[in-house]
Amino acid sequence: MQFKKHKASRGYEHLIAYFWTIKSSEYDKDNSSYRFVPDAYVDWVFHLETPWQCDFPDIESQSKTGKFHVFGQIKKHINLTLPDGNLNVFGVKFHPWMANEIWKVDMCYLTNGCLDLTDLGLPEMNVLQERICMANSIDERVQIVETYLLPYLNYNDNKSLKYAFSSLTIETNHLKTLDTGIGLRRLEQRFKNEIGISPKLFLRTCRINAVIDKMKENTNQSLTQLALEYHYYDQSHFIKDFKQFTGFSPSRFLKSINPDGDILNLRRN
């Protein structure tokens, strides 16, 4: 599996973390299934060839993994069944606070699922998605997406949840607020509507991804050190949390990780 990141143009970094592409290779024939681990971002996905199938808990959500879809937040790992034909995917990874602003959709409806944006009744979305799919190069697709996002180029995210969650911490499994300027109940409601999950689960998702990045950098770091560094009760609490998000123990995770992957970052077999 060949995964590549592509930078957004200057001025779009506050909207898009990066663009990404995935293509199957001749070495993937024996790997029909991959695992997708929550990363707290929102992905707009375009299948240029045969789509994958997502093993969401909700059967109705599974039926929506078509040619185009937007992934909402997922609460735990999901499995992807790759197509028999070639996999060729173009994706846009949005910062988590932007999807609600752009598409005006209550993000809780996308939690543990995905949605074709044409289902929202957005003007010209069907034509736009087809244009992106039919473009002849990655650069052309990036340009189409960025042109679509021009109205948000000067978007001021000072009032977004970007700054609210930067003032939150999770310690001993309890949410602590610093000076957010937002009451806890109101904050939880905003997270549900604008992100799709609670602030506590969002922070846990960010934390487990920080742990994964650290494990990639240093495969020999002890689990006890990681547990202490990232404010877990103890090693057993860390392992339990890790398994919930990835489906693997930390040791098995390291053996299963795809070094060239990010979205499709875990081999199931």
How is this structure best described in words?
- A hairpin with a 2-residue loop joins strand 10 and strand 11.
- The radius of gyration is 19 Å and the shape is globular.
- 34% of the residues lie in helices and 20% in strands.
- The longest helix is centred in the C-terminal third of the chain and has 19 residues, at 199-217.
- With 269 residues, the protein is an alpha+beta fold.
- It contains 10 helices and 12 strands.
- It has 2 domains: 2-155, Jelly Rolls (Sandwich); 161-256, Homeodomain-like (Arc Repressor Mutant, subunit A, Orthogonal Bundle).
- It has helices at residues 59-62, 99-103, 125-134, 138-148, 161-165, 184-195, 199-217, 223-229, 235-246, 250-256; strands spanning 2-6, 16-23, 33-36, 42-47, 53-55, 68-71, 78-81, 88-94, 114-115, 168-171, 174-177, 266-267.
- The strands form 3 sheets. The protein has a 6-stranded antiparallel beta sheet, with helices on one face.
List the helices and strands and how they pair.
Elements: E1 2-6, E2 16-23, E3 33-36, E4 42-47, E5 53-55, H1 59-62, E6 68-71, E7 78-81, E8 88-94, H2 99-103, E9 114-115, H3 125-134, H4 138-148, H5 161-165, E10 168-171, E11 174-177, H6 184-195, H7 199-217, H8 223-229, H9 235-246, H10 250-256, E12 266-267
Antiparallel strand pairs: 1-2, 2-8, 3-7, 3-12, 4-6, 4-8, 5-7, 6-9, 10-11
Which architecture of the largest domain does the CATH hierarchy give at level 2? Sandwich
User: Compute the gyration radius: what is it?
Assistant: 19 Å
**What portion of residues belong to β-strands?**
15-25%
The parts where pLDDT drops under 50 for at least 5 residues are: none
How far apart the termini lie comes to 14 Å
CATH topology (level 3) name of the largest domain: Jelly Rolls
Count of alpha and pi helical runs: 10
Range of helix content: 25-40%
H/E element string?
Answer: EEEEEHEEEHEHHHEEHHHHHE
Regarding quaternary structure, what we see is single chain
Mean pLDDT metric: 83
Major sheet: size, sense and barrel closure? 6 strands, antiparallel
Number of domain modules: 2
Q: Would you identify the CATH H-level superfamily of the largest domain?
A: Jelly Rolls
Given the C-alpha coordinates, what overall shape results? globular
